[in-house]
Amino acid sequence: MNTSAAHRTIDAIWRIESPKLIAGLARMVRDVGTAEDMAQDALVIALERWPVTGIPDNPGAWLMATAKRRAIDLLRRNKRRDQKYEEIGRGSELYSELDLESAMDGEIGDDLLRLIFTTCHPVLSREARVALTLRLLGGLTTDEIAHAFLVAESTVAQRIVRAKRTLSAEQVPFELPAGEEMINRLSSVLEVIYLMFNEGYTATAGGNWIRPLLCQEALRLGRILAEIAPSEPEVHGMVALMEIQSSRFKTRVSQTGEPVLLMDQNRALWDHLLIRRGLAALERARRLGRPLGPYALQAAIAACHAQALTASDTDWARIAALYEALAQTAPSPIVELNRAVAISMAFGPEFGLRLVDELVSEPSMKEYHLLPSVRGDLLLKVGRITEAQGEFEHAASLTRNARERELLLRRAAECAAAANGENKI
To answer: What is the pTM of this model?
Structure first.
């Protein structure tokens, strides 16, 4: 394997293994920034050695062992320091060798949840909590996080640096909170897990339309969280949403990797076990007797799609009503864009186009590629083919996912061909 190919492979491995690595190290050293530094040290060693020696059979275990040795060295240095400066501690062992050797042997799932709740601590701003956790647990780059939040990359980078400094300065404990404190942090935790899932469901950049492993990790964390907080309807709502959306994975890309849009998917191939699990989680959220929150409402929308045997059977009027409720509960331009699509499907493209046109001047949507993509689709349906072509081309210029760009350019080319055909006539 040449060096370039090895580095690409190592980068893919790092995206998968880094959250578990950082979480395990954070439990040992009790500092998120230090844990990330040690994990990065292990990555640097891998980048130096693996192109020469080859990728290990178990690269995750290799990285963990390498980082673990560095963490143990740090703990030993700290132990010697404490023994020197704390007279009272001279007669006892602050750490036993068994402690040091077994410090990484806990449940990885618990470690990941501890890391999420640590990085979602109230001492951080909401934006900083989400950015830091996505960076550490999702393995997302600052560029990908910036795209998810529609902000500048430099802004995200500053948030992450400041967040790590704050956690260290405030000595935030690496633990799962209990009672009211857990409830207070849930909204940020749910947002982080779902953004992780969403990045896997539709990748921000790169050559793949989806990143299934990222979705699987987010779903696993969501299921664990549902066991920890069973009386919180939004936890079940988020799990329901991820279960139902995960059911479509086999049909979201063609055999050659091209995206397949929802209305074109073979619903017979959807995973009906995941759909049943999602519907059951949604029912658990409803049985708790509180108004449905944003995740449960989105799960109800996903359930409408899952329960329609064919695309033409979809209850778009109900979906439009659910998006209206979602817009009241969690208003945002993206929710309004989705509501416009539902209204266009239920009542005609002209109605949807009016709503979409109102979003064109929204500053936060300026770089959001799905706005011109949706507008192009609606323009095409009302017969404004040349305008539709321009919107698809604009959308293609905004997306950083290669597969999505190909799809949009293909739609633009189809518009051009249709326009030329009309001109000939």
So the answer is: 0.72
Domain borders along the chain are 1-87, 367-425
pLDDT tens-digit map of 340-379: 999 999 999 999 999 999 999 999 999 999 999 999 999 9
Q: Which CATH architecture has domain 1-87?
A: Orthogonal Bundle (1.10)
Query: For the segment 142-155, what is each residue's pLDDT rounded down to a tens digit?
Result: 888 887 676 789 99
pLDDT of residue 99: 38
The three-state DSSP-derived secondary structure of the chain is CCHHHHHHHHHHHHHHHHHHHHHHHHHHHCCHHHHHHHHHHHHHHHHHHHHHHCCCCCHHHHHHHHHHHHHHHHHHHHHHHHHHHCHHHCCCCCCCHHHHHHCCCCCHHHHHHHHHHHHCCCCCCHHHHHHHHHHHHCCCCHHHHHHHHCCCHHHHHHHHHHHHHHHHHCCCCCCCCCHHHHHHHHHHHHHHHHHHHHHHHCCCEECCCCCHHHHHHHHHHHHHHHHHCCCCHHHHHHHHHHHHHHCCHHHCECCCCCECCHHHCCHHHCCHHHHHHHHHHHHHHHHCCCCCCHHHHHHHHHHHHHHCCCHHHCCHHHHHHHHHHHHHHCCCHHHHHHHHHHHHHHHCHHHHHHHHHHHCCCHHHCCCCHHHHHHHHHHHHCCCHHHHHHHHHHHHHHCEEHHHHHHHHHHHHHHHHHHHHHHHC
pLDDT score of 127: 85
